[in-house]
UniProtKB/TrEMBL annotation:
(6S)-NADPHX binds at A235, G289, H334, D402. Residues 200-458 form the YjeF C-terminal domain. Binds 1 potassium ion per subunit. It comes from Streptomyces aurantiacus. GO terms for molecular function: ADP-dependent NAD(P)H-hydrate dehydratase activity; ATP binding; metal ion binding; NAD(P)HX epimerase activity. This is ADP-dependent (S)-NAD(P)H-hydrate dehydratase. Residues 1-194 form the YjeF N-terminal domain. GO terms for biological process: metabolite repair; nicotinamide nucleotide metabolic process. The keyword NAD applies. AMP binds at K371, G372, S373, T374, T375, G401.
Length: 460
């Protein structure tokens, strides 16, 4: 900001937001627009945007939340362009009810906590009205840095974010408030290491293990699956189904559900004893449907290869044993399992995913993949947390986690590190869920089968 003439960034921001609003409105001329204007620069962005829309023939009304502390240059620009102003949130109701578009400039990255009591009713009014709601930078009231929502917040149809995505736009619950997100590049120089990163197709394509001319099944990696029980043989079958599509050259199964596995997947190497008797693998998956088989979990944790621990295995894994391991460990809890490991409520984990996943990674000295509406993957330390952008509600189906653990274990066996294996596994799994669902319900086996389509889609 220091190197640019005063107001340059704000003009770039306003130009981008105006373009997005015009797209949404279809026709700017004759439309009715209400600006919700807070006391900071977020309100300034809204005012400059309003001025641009007014110049293009929109009827623009600014509701000033703190009339004595409003961005002065933005307000002057709006007035010059013919916009009208109402002073105080108590006058907002009538204009909002008539509006085609409401622009939320109450607070941006300078906000703390949920909306204040005078601003909170505006969020409700905007939501109840028929107007489209566009948030400037982020929906007011959500926490930009963590995705937490501690109180009232605006629910937007579209968020136009400036310079860079904020964690709050990518992590639930805040993500749900943002609607679709459009990034406007305003030429900010960004710090090197982000707090959060999301892989895209090209990143995943570069990480997927593709066999070379010299490869044989052992060099591609063998993944061991220690899962399932007499009571839950299906978990073993689904974990193997995922593992067969994850790029390892062979899948070994060790446990009591070998007959069910071999009946469905004859290519599996099956044994019924303990995992430590099963022969060499390059990575283990332990836990899905394992019931109370603590010995299998301990045997796997004692192996000097990467280990993925899921489901029942999480409850049975000794924390000190995990911490003492030298090979990578990847834990894959859903919110309920993470809550049990952290000794807090499920709601607490769901309300503070980013903090929870970091805490778990620290406590166990392991990489943690926290499943759910937003899947996050964190390794211990301050490196960026990964957020999976491909998730879909259709994946909330029985056995879907078993497929993910097999798939991700296979990627570990093929040589990806725990953070990459977790994020690539989640990415393919989410994409497979979308492709398999295509707008209709799916079972976990459909997701496993669609992993190949997801793989091709990424490589295209
Ligand atoms: N940085 C950049 O490079 C660029 C930044 N840009 C823009 O600036 C925005 C950041 O502006 P900012 O720093 O002025 O803070 P902002 O978000 O407007 O809010 C602070 C004000 O809100 C108030 N307030 C606080 N909490 C509240 C609550 N819960 N509920 C209600 N009110 C609350 C608080 O009031 P106070 O505590 O002082 O009473 C304070 O005055 C950024 O998001 C982007 O839009 C772009 O123009 C381009 C380049
Ligand atoms: K805002």
């Amino acid at each position: 900001m220091a190197r640019l003439p005063d107001g340059t960034l704000m003009q770039r921001a306003a130009a981008g937001i105006t373009a997005a609003c015009a797209d949404l409105l279809g026709r700017v001329y004759g439309s009715r627009v209400v600006l919700l204007v807070g006391s900071g620069d977020n309100g300034g962005d809204a005012l400059y945007t309003g001025a641009r829309l007014a110049k293009r023939g929109a009827g623009v009304t600014a509701v000033l939340l703190t009339p004595d502390r409003t961005h002065p240059a933005g307000l002057a620009a709006l007035r010059r362009a013919g916009g009208t102003v109402v002073r105080g949130p108590e006058h907002a109701e009538a204009p909002i009810r008539r509006a085609h578009l409401v622009i939320d400039g109450i607070v941006g990255i300078g906000g703390k906590g949920g909306l204040r009591p005078d601003a909170a009713p505006l969020a409700d009014l905007a939501q109840e009205s028929r107007a489209a709601v566009v948030a400037v930078d982020l929906p007011s009231g959500v926490d930009a840095g963590t995705g937490e929502v501690r109180g009232a917040a605006v629910r937007a149809d579209l968020t136009v974010t400036l310079g860079t995505h904020k964690p709050g736009l990518l992590v639930d619950p805040a993500r749900e408030y943002a609607g679709s997100v459009r990034l406007v590049d305003i030429g900010l120089a960004l710090p090197g290491d982000p707090e959060l990163e999301a892989l895209q197709h090209a990143d995943v394509a570069a990480l997927l293990p593709v066999p070379g001319a010299e490869s044989d099944k052992y060099r591609r990696g063998v993944v061991g699956i220690a899962a399932g029980s007499a009571r839950y043989p299906g978990a073993a079958v689904l974990a193997v189904a995922g593992a067969l599509r994850g790029g390892a050259g062979a899948v070994r199964y060790a446990g009591p559900a070998g007959d069910a596995v071999i009946a469905r997947f004859p290519e599996t190497l099956v044994s019924s004893g303990s995992p430590d008797q099963a022969g060499r693998v390059q990575a283990w998956v332990v836990g899905p449907g394992a019931g109370d088989d603590a010995d299998a979990v301990t045997a796997v944790l004692n192996a000097d290869v990467p280990v993925l621990v899921d489901a029942d295995g999480l409850r049975l894994a000794d924390r000190d044993l995990v911490r003492a391991r030298r090979a990578p460990t990847l834990l894959t809890p859903h919110a309920g399992e993470a809550a049990a490991l952290l000794g807090v409520s499920r709601e607490e984990v769901e309300g503070a995913r980013l903090t929870s996943v970091r805490k778990l990674a620290e406590r166990y000295g392991a990489t943690v993949l926290l499943k759910g509406s937003t899947t996050l993957i964190a390794s211990p330390g301050d490196g960026p947390v990964r957020v999976n952008p491909t998730g879909t509600g259709w994946l909330a189906t029985a056995g879907s986690g078993d497929v993910l653990s097999g798939l991700t274990g296979s990627l570990l066996a093929a040589g990806l590190d725990a953070l990459d294996a977790g994020s690539v596994g989640a990415y393919l799994h989410g994409l497979a869920g979308r492709l398999a669902a295509d707008g209709a319900p799916v079972g976990a086996h459909d997701v496993a089968e669609a992993v190949r389509d997801a793989w091709r889609d990424v490589m295209d």
